[in-house]
Each structure stands twice: as structure tokens, then as C-alpha cells.
Fold this protein.
Amino acid sequence: MPMERREWGDEPPYHMPVFVLTHHPRAPLRMAGLRAGLIDELHLAIRPVLLGSGEHLLHDIDMRGLRYECAKHVAGERATHVFLRKRA
């Protein structure tokens, strides 16, 4: 099942990308401001389960160019926790 981006317009209600699981493919929706570098720290909990062929989480985002680094990573029993932090 592909992931579908809901078409909320230029300003999504949660001010972040929203993904909805669906049974049919949709064209990608590009939103303004996703590369603004406004996040100081990000905690990702990654579980090794693929839906369909999978999707690149940070596709086409230059994390190093935006001054982010992996501050810490912890392999847990059910997920790997990755902590990204913006360098000063």
C-alpha cells in the first residue's frame, strides 16, 4: 500500500507533512517551508517494517547542508532511536 500525502494546501493544519495509508498511488504534493531549518532537535523512532516498497523518509533533503548531525542513536528491542540535532 503506498503512502498518500493529504492535500491540505500551502499551510497544513499540523504544520508538518501528514501521511495517510491508502490502497492507490497519488502524485507527490510539494509544500512550502519544509526545508526552512526551523527544527532544533528531532527524535526518530524507526521500526524495520516496510509498507509496499517503502519511502525515503528524508528524500532530497540535504541534512548536512542544513547543519543537522546525528547526536545519538540507540538500537532498542523494537525500534532504533535516532536523535538529530542542528549544529550551532
User: Anything to note?
Assistant: The chain has two domains: 1-34, 35-88. Confidence is low (pLDDT under 50) at residues 1-5.
